[in-house]
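User: Hey, quick favor. My workstation is busy. Could you predict this chain's structure for me?
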Amino acid sequence: MRRLDLKGAPARLRQVEVYGPLLAGLILLGVAIGVSYWSYADYEAFRQRAVITTAAITKVEPTEYENGRYKVTYGTVSYPVDGEFKQSRVLLESCSRNPCSTQGEKRIGDPFEIFYDPHEVTRAVPAADVDNFPSSNPLYFVMAFLGLIALVVGTINLVLSEAQPER
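Assistant: No problem, here it is.
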């Protein structure tokens, strides 16, 4: 790939080449960090105000992937909130071993401990998972990585443009 020779180019074109990658890198990195922080802060706020209760499983939705190598079981649970029963869809169990054990499978009517948000009562998390912060979307890691690459490229362009005298 041939580098664009900007020695005789107008100053504005040189600024675009130098500051464009820096600006793009800062935007990508800022969005990735900002969205990840917002997600973490939201989850921490949920943990602070969450209430534990015992729910009853009302529906079980087993799903299997890749010839039984990975199994996920979602279900609908019903739990009391201020005298009324609310429902929420939660992850009941997951397995990534081969083969997945059928011991302890969840059934309709089984008790199941959950944490729910008193401000948003249909938001529930299994009690066993409340301390596990959900992993961030891989898109944020890609954005942060691309932002870092753009910052490095922009910094190199900035250093090289400073070393070359303008004509």
